[in-house]
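Teaching note: in complex prediction, the entire set of molecules is handled at once rather than each chain in isolation. The prompt given to students was simply: 'Predict the structure of this complex.' The entities are:
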Amino acid sequence: MEQHTSTFRLRLREWLATHMPRQDGPARTGSDRDPARHRLLQRRLFDGGYAGLTYPAAYGGQGLTAEYQEVFREETAGYELPTLCNVSLGILGPTILDFGTEEQKRRHLPAILRGDELWVQLLSEPAGGSDLAGCITRATRDGDQWVLNGSKIWSTGAHFSDYALCLARSNWSLPKHRGLTMFAIELHQPGIDIEPIRQANGDAEFCQEFITDLAIDGHDMVGAENAGWEVAGRLLYHERNLAGAASPYTYGSEAESTPVAPTAAELVDVARSSGTTQDLRVRALIAEAHALDAIQGRLVERIGTGIATGALEPIAGSLLRLFEITKVLHCSEASVDIARSAVVVWPESDTGRLGGQFLMRQSAALAGGSIEMQRNIIAERVLGLPRELAPDVGVPFDSVRHNAPARRR
Amino acid sequence: MWGYRSTRSATTRRRGVGDALRFDASAEQQELGAITRRFLEDTVPLTALRLLGEKSPAGFDRDWWRRAADLGWTSLLVPENLGGSGGSGGGLAELAIVAEEQGRLVAPGPLLPTSVSAWTLAQAEQTDVVRRALDAIGSGEAVCAWVRGHDDGPWPQSRPAVRAVRTNDTLSLTGVARAVEAGADADYLLVAVCLDDQVAHVLVHAAHAEQAGLQRQRMHSLDLVRRHADLTFDSIEIPRAATVIQGDQGRIILQRQGQLANVLQGAEMVGAAARTFEMGLEFAAERYSFGRPLASYQVLKHRFADMKLWLEASAAAVEGAVAAVADDAPDAAARVSAAKLYVGQKATDIVQDCIQVHGGIGVTWEHDLHLYLRRVTMDRQLMGTPAEHAEYLAMLIGL
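The expected output is the structure of the full assembly:
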């Protein structure tokens, strides 16, 4: 195996040097990224035989092990990569792989790998984020078709994406988790209005969707009718892997949105700019960030092994997400402490990145499931502690009290 | 309604070994852990520790230590051709499993100094003196203290606390080495010394050195059964042949000794924190307040979730450090310091939090929790505190 990966490594190294652009300056993130360029880079990887290394060959992938993805990650350091495709490659693609019909897989997976299709997940709603199973977007059966009505929110880059997996309530008389169905929908069509949401830092990476009488073909159901919660659970598993730097499908750990804190390595530059590298407190903060970074790689390995050997439930991936949040929050605090006045006052020639990041700090502990939900999951499903009292479990959903549907602003 | 679903923690406990360390332990490693745990439970159960601490000045029984040595504890870092059991992988992963089990049961015994000393002697030229010492340490007949001195400046001190000067055919040692584990009771002392601006390692017969004037001052230790002493060398003459390692090697060996020591402390802290965490979980599940188990309160559930993360990340940090030190990897020093700064902090946090969960009973002499707090605090404070390792790591990353 070692020998195979080393041949692969050399071949890849040579190919990258002639086919992929080097990174100039810090990696572009969030709304700085140009979807057309990322689609093009993804296409280039595909044509070179380096897209979807761990995807089955039958669907356009290379059918290789995660080891090869690791080699890819190491060798591509310093190259510009189509990170905008991470959500499609790491979350939606794998979910289709798990639950899609043969036809859905053949239709969408090669297109994702080619960069032709960008996907997003439509799970959260204005009426509730953490309580995902309390979803109130309505799917009404109409012969072989379904009709969707409702609103979704916090979808990253929906305005430039092509498809989505959308969770909707297909049966209101069943208990909340058992009346949901997952649908694959095309985003740009009549019946869906997509509005970008302006964030506290002025960026607009997220969107809200308003869905009105959207007709969906029965073939576009992913998983069985009323089995959407199972599909969503798997989707969230892949999302946690991506957010916890443990996805075998993607280019690095960056999940979806703009990083909200400098990395451990960037903190060193922050300290150099503020002239504080000899301050003992600053050195300790940076050392800790560095330690968290070093430990994270090992933790990903450890939890992965634990899940593979059955010592841990797959849900233990939540630990990785909690660690990532902890690390980001530490780096955020550290950057503000270290940079001093530069966080709040900066010259026109600068970007004021640190201040902007600090405004968005909490999104690290919100996006992809709040830190409180992660702690609940770990306590209840990893450690087996008693569940929170839930008056909405085991009763028909139409008798459960919930928030009002969102109205168009 | 508040039924306690005992799931993973109970399952992993049934595995019997490596609760915290290594999900990828081999069958042999699991067996080693299981044997170690059985031996400790049978011979030095928690119930016997307080008495042992009161009755035994050394904190451990020599016959017991010989039996422990029979299990291979003292020879894991010694290669087979020198009479040890360390394979090409070096045996550090196995020793870390033993150390973790020691933490789980707050075990007595000079595992750290004998391991570091035996490893060092195995690196030395195999003279008769070295061979005899290695054999005696390996069989548990003799105990060797590792003397590098503390409180002489932030970790890692570049200069050992003891200086050596050449006289005609002897070396003369001067200096005070503080907080030397098993320092008052050891038969051998492996002393790191400054010699001609380099670091050398000398092997000293404790009894001979005492005749030559070595002062061994027994100190009080926070741990009930791990004992420390301050050693005062005041122009103590020893044969030059006692030098087992010198030249450029000396400093490298000193650095690797420090890495080994910190890895073993880390593994022990992980074991101690893992057991304390189990105690906390069990207590919270069984203790009822306002008609429901403590474990059903979200504020405590979240606390346990955090502790679980700290525990897993600590185990991962130690695994990383073990691998790096075993391979003598270029980043070994950084891995070790990253582990010490994280595990040292989090292990004490976990134990203190579990004491909080227990309420008042957690701060009584009668309850076992303080035994664990004593152990993790000792490991955290010696061989570089988390803060010292943070500063060292800052330097290593170029700050």
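Point out the following to students. Chain B touches chain A through 53 residues (CB under 8 Å). Chain B has a mean pLDDT of 92.
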